[in-house]
Design a protein that fits this description.
By secondary structure, this protein is mainly α. It has one domain: AhpD-like (Up-down Bundle). The chain contains six helices and no strands. Helix 1 crosses helix 2, helix 3 packs across helix 5 and helix 5 packs antiparallel against helix 6. It starts with 21 loop residues before the first helix and ends with a helix.
Length: 124
Amino acid sequence: MTQISTMPTSTMPYKNAVLDDQQLQQALKKINPKFGDFVTRVAGEAWGLPLIDQKTKALIVITVDVVNQNLLGSGTPFAAHVDMAIKQGVTRAEIEELLLFLCVYAGFNKAAASFGALDEILTD
């Protein structure tokens, strides 16, 4: 599994969580160079939309991962999205509260698996 930083690399959140994060872009290119370039362009444009702030977008992508159970293993985005959220100022406590909230709407089993994955990601 790719090692994820649990501390922001700067004191200020990125203006664009995809386009401003060179570490993320390199990780995407390691999956496949064309895939990395494509995802950077498309996701970068989506993350650049102005009405929803970067922190909220980071919480939304974590929600999508929970609902789809894209949590651990090769090619799954949950660890990258947790890292992205932390870089945007989201705390572990906020992620945990989000997972509790999602118990009601996504299902208790999905939330339980997500808590386990979160623990694994943040203790590595």
